[in-house]
Amino acid sequence: MGIPVMGHLGYTPQAIHGLGGARVQGRSADEAIKLVEEAKALEKAGCFSVVLEMVPTAVAKLVTEKLAIPTIGIGAGNSCDGQILVTDDLLGKFTDFLPRFVRRYADLSSVCQEAVANYAADVKSGDFPNASESFLFPREEEALLSKKVEAEV
Question: What's the pTM value of the predicted model, to 2 decimals?
């Protein structure tokens, strides 16, 4: 049976330095043909799907048309068989950087910052954790524990 594998073409964050930084891939005819060939090779190797990241819409459309397996786009236009975004990006958890292809559907950054500040304040004040958020030691064992500690220490 084997392990299901999804291919990944275009911008691959783990290879950022070899790609010349975070940039769109497949912007020339030669690069586009290379992406199509690589996608077909992944399909032939048994991949069940291919992610196309940061490639021009026309190239993603061409790759999608040439494959029998689904393509999933992230910054690859609307011609792929499916779409994906990094959850933290679409939920707006970060304010310093937003890839061009991301649409924010929420602003959780301020909500997360407020939650962490409230947590820190509760810890500093001693309000967290309270008795209902802690595990209590059985009263019937307290005396026995005290005796054992005194005997061993």
Answer: 0.73
Pick the closest to residue 86 from 95, 76, 98 (CA basis).
Answer: 98
Domains of the chain, residue spans: 6-84, 110-152
| DSSP secondary structure, 82-100, as one string | EE---HHHHTT--SS---T
SS3 7: strand
Strand, coil or helix: what is 29? helix
Which residue has 């967290």 as its token pair? 128
Residues with a known catalytic role: 53
Angle between helices 29-45 and 57-66 (to 10 degrees): 30
The pLDDT of 42-50, averaged and rounded, is 98
CA end-to-end distance (rounded Å), the chain:
58
8: three-class secondary structure by DSSP: strand
